[in-house]
Amino acid sequence: GLGVLPRPMAALGAYRCIECNEEATELYRDYQRGVLRISICKSCQKPVDKYIEYDPVIILINAVLCKAQAYRHILFNTKINIHGKLCVFCLLCEAYLRWLQLQDSSQNTDPDDLIRYAKEWDFYRMFGIASLEQTSFFIGIFITLWWMTPEMLKRKSDFILLLKALLLSTYGKLLLIPAVIWEHDYTPLCLAFIKMFVLISNSQAIRVTLNLNRILPWLAIFFGLILENGVVCLFQKMGWDV
Hints:
Distance between the termini: 48 Å
Number of strands: 4
Pfam families: Arv1 (PF04161)
Radius of gyration: 21 Å
Number of helices: 8
Strand order of the largest sheet: 1-2
Function: Mediator of sterol homeostasis involved in sterol uptake, trafficking and distribution into membranes.
Protein name: Protein ARV
Membrane topology: Multi-pass membrane protein
Largest sheet: 2 strands, antiparallel
Order of helices and strands: EEEEHHHHHHHH
Family: Belongs to the ARV1 family.
Number of domains: 2
Strand content: under 5%
């Protein structure tokens, strides 16, 4: 049934059809006494958002499968304010994995307080490095998209929406948790699969947010990766373990 629903009415352009991406003024109409009717898109003649009557678990599964309709539902037709918290949590997961790898490579088992203090600061350093790498990755994406499609990013709200979409699409980094807990001797191949899944999610988020073809988002991600790897090389030249 219709669980937690968004507002039934909104200004023009507040909602989007999940099938054709056209603007819509409402997702459903409330006829009172529990009678609700899902709005039909005037462009494609399909329900504006069929997901408003889906269970959240089904929506999550469709998002994991990188379906454009699920992404449009989440980005345009719902109110989600966990972007910042999700980003910080994902960075903490990545920092912990790097810190764990750093400790595994260290043979020092001295329980001295100074050693424990140094290890704690190693974790903070890894968090800072992971944050800078992700920031440079996003900057590379924004620069590429702004250069190739300036008409898509004219307003501040366009940048904010794309940033939120990118932050939400990094949820795949949460897979680092079971990779660490359930597989002590995790392989680089496992981490590579997680990285690829995150990049695919990023690509779909860009494509849905700006209504682009499949090529341009991947081009933006490619330049984002170049800038990110440039930051990694800079840290390595400084003698830092990343």
